[in-house]
Each structure stands twice: as C-alpha cells, then as structure tokens.
Amino acid sequence: MTASKAAPTASVSRRGALAALGLALPALAAGTATHGGQADRIVVAGGVITEVIYALGEQDRVVGVDSTSQFPPQALQSKADIGYVRAVSAEGVLSLKPSLVLLIDGAGPPDALALIAESGVRVARIPDGQDAEGVAAKIVAIGDAIGAAEAARRLAARTSAGFRELEELRAGLTQRRRVLFVLSLQNGRALVGGRNSSADAIIALAGAENAASGIEGYKPMTDEAIIAAAPEIVLMMSRGNHRTSAEELFALPAFSQAPAAAQRRLVQMDGLYLLGFGPRTPLAARDLMAAIDPDRTLPPLTTGGAP
Predict the structure, then answer these.
(1) In 29-48, which positions are buried (b, 16+ CB within 10 angstroms) versus exposed (e)?
(2) Strand-strand pairing, 38-39 and 34-35
(3) How far is CA 229 from CA 13, 53, 109, 224, 263, in A?
C-alpha cells in the first residue's frame, strides 16, 4: 500500500516542478521544432557528444552545450552553457526549448534528468564506451540520434582505422611503463585513476601499465601507496585546477620518492582530448605513447576520426 501511494506523489511533485518552471507540456511542445523529421534545437550534456556533432558538420542544430564541451573551442563560445555535465539544470535546459536532449552516460543529477524527460522533450542517452568498439558505437549512436547515420558510420570507420594503427604501434613496444594518472591534488593528497576508470582505459590504449590498478575508479591514494606503486610517469590534465607544475608535484613527499621524480616525468594533456573517448582518441593515445617514451620515434597516424 505504501508503494502505491508514493508514485502518484512523486508524479505530482514533478508536475509541480515543471509548472513552477513555466514549462507546461503544450507550451513546451510548441518550441520543439524539427526540420525534415530531424531535431533542429539540440541540447548536449557531454563534451564528446558535442565533439562528434561538430565532426559531423551538424553544429548549427545545437543550441546548448555543457561546460565539458571544450572542443572545438567555438562550441562554448557560440552556444548556451547549461553547466557541468553532472550538475545539469532542468530549467536551464528546458528554457532553450530543445527538440532533442543528448545525454552521455554519467550526466546528472537524476532528478533534473527526470524533469527533462517528463517535460515531453525527446531524450537520447549515449553509452560512453572507452575502447575501440565502444568509441565507434558511441559515434554511431550519436549519428542515429540526430539523423546523421551515414556520416556517423563513415566517421566511426575512420576512427576504427586509427585504432587499428594504434594497435600496430603498441605491438612494437618492448616494455610497459608504469603511469599514474592524478586527477587532482588537494592538500597534498592525490586523487588518482584506478582500474575501470577512463584514465585506466587511455593508459592501456597507450601501451602502458596503470600504477594505480589496485584501486577501483577514481579514489584518493595514500602516500605509502604511491611510493609502493613506483610510477615512472605521472599523467595529469593541463587545464584549470587540475594543473600543477613538475616542481610542485615532485616536492610532495610521496612523489619525490617515485621513479618519475628522477627526470621530472610529468606528462600533461588536455582533459577532453585525453579522456573524451571520441574521434580523436586514437591520436590522443598515440601522443600519450610518444610522451611516455620520448626516446622512441613514433610515426603519426595516417588515419583516424579527427575533424
């Protein structure tokens, strides 16, 4: 009996929230125009989705993107910003009168996404695969969602060709370097990427070994664990509060004792390029491979999905 009463209450509450936003369903539907059966007011939550849409040449149909949509740079410069991908505002999204909302896996929060879905707007959730097959499937899913299936399949095929070239480069490696991905440093404490994280996936694609494989996902790592992990290279993102200098990093007690400290082996790369897992991922993994082993001459990839 309790369960039967809870659902209507939640439904009424959500309808009330929509009404408070001034977004009754008939009024909202009036703004969800399509052209030739295709959505012409697309809102995106997920930087890789934005990247793929631009690569497909469909950017004119996008009216809003989230703050992780850093590539190409003009996306955030010319489109409405709906906030961080995990902290999307239903009001902000729906105020753009979208005809389609594309959400990458992990977008949120759930309550906001529920409001968006219940508003009557079409919502497509895109799986965030992080291997060669998953990236190709992601590109195809985005193309299918926006009505650009053929172009997306061509882009997926080029990207897959890049992954095959990357596999050949990995086959030529004679050793696997130990890489520690540090997402952030707070009060000297490192938040690192363990197994089954996006960092773990890109490290593997670059033919290296994740020094934090004993940790699941993104978690803090103790000084003792960092010393025991003995990373030869530390990998970080190059933007915003994730950025630090080699001097700052290797002055920390745990990192000062790591093998990476001897030659200040800190590699920094753009976050979306490194961890976006879109058309540029074969190129990013190749560049990471080159940075991990700078004494080895790597040829550029001749194929790939970069726009």
Answers:
(1) eeebeeeeeebbbbbbbbbb
(2) antiparallel
(3) 50, 39, 34, 9, 17
Encoded tokens for 9: 């209450």
Backbone angles phi, psi at 272, to 5 degrees: -70, -40
Average pLDDT, stretch 209-222?
Answer: 97
Mean pLDDT, residues 224-240 = 94
As a whole number of angstroms, the distance between CA 286 and CA 288 comes to 5
Structure tokens at 185: 């440093």
Q: Packing angle between helix 47-55 and helix 149-171, nearest 10 degrees?
A: 110
| Residues 108 and 84: beta-carbon distance below 8 Å | no
* pTM given for the model: 0.88
Residue 30: enclosing H or E segment and its boundaries? Answer: none
Q: Which amino acid is at 39?
A: A
Residue that is written with structure tokens 């993107």 in the block: 65
CA distance 264 to 165: 30
Q: By three-state DSSP, how is residue 228 classified?
A: helix
| Beta-strand pair 62-65/42-45 | parallel
HSE on the CB side for 215, CA within 13 Å? Answer: 24
**What are the C-alpha distances in Å from 71 to residues 50, 145, 150, 276, 292?**
8, 20, 22, 10, 24
Return the amino acid letter for 9: T
Distance CA 77, CA 194 (A): 33
pLDDT per position as a tens digit, 138-148: 999 999 999 99
